[in-house]
């Protein structure tokens, strides 16, 4: 009986922890690069693209399941090429050199974008 009470308490605490987790709270640590910073980099790129005046886009959220090592160099951004086979436009946030780890040396995260309302032009070339 005591064991099931402990298990219920642990599960409840876990659920509360997961419920409070979001892109806003997923910040970079010494070992991992946060989704917040990745999304913000995509937003900066989209803001620059929007300033060019061709199309108007909004950067959405990266996949919440994404976990990447901390980047050791400044992040790069560009449109995801069509050759990558993605069904909708997205921005690639690229790390060309992550901090030393056993998993990956470099990575890229695709952040989906959508056209702002009332936009009827064709998608950006990529």
What can you see in these coordinates?
The protein is an alpha+beta fold and 126 residues long. The radius of gyration is 18 Å and the shape is globular. The protein starts with a helix and ends in an 11-residue tail after the last strand.
Mean pLDDT: 83
Main β-sheet description: 4 strands, antiparallel
Strand runs, count: 6
Strand content: 15-25%
Q: Runs with pLDDT <50, length 5+?
A: 7-18
Q: SSE order, as H and E?
A: HEHEEEEE
Shape: globular
Task: Give keywords.
single chain, 126 residues, alpha+beta, four-stranded antiparallel β-sheet, 2 helices, 29% helix, 21% strand, globular
Structure summary:
The chain has 126 residues and is an alpha+beta fold.
Note the topology:
Layout: H1 2-20, E1 32-33, H2 35-51, E2 57-59, E3 68-69, E4 76-79, E5 90-95, E6 107-115
Antiparallel strand pairs: 1-3, 2-6, 4-5, 5-6
């Amino acid at each position: 009986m005591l064991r099931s009470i402990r298990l219920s308490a642990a599960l409840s605490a876990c659920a509360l922890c997961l419920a409070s987790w979001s892109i806003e709270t997923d910040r970079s640590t010494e070992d991992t690069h946060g989704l917040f910073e990745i999304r913000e980099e995509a937003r900066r790129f989209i803001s620059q693209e929007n300033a060019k005046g061709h199309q108007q886009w909004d950067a959405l959220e990266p996949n919440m399941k994404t976990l990447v090592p901390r980047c050791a160099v400044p992040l790069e951004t560009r449109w995801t090429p069509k050759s990558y086979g993605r069904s909708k436009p997205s921005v690639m946030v690229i790390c060309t050199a992550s901090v030393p780890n056993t998993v990956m040396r470099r990575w890229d995260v695709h952040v989906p974008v959508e056209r702002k309302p009332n936009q009827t032009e064709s998608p950006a070339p990529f």
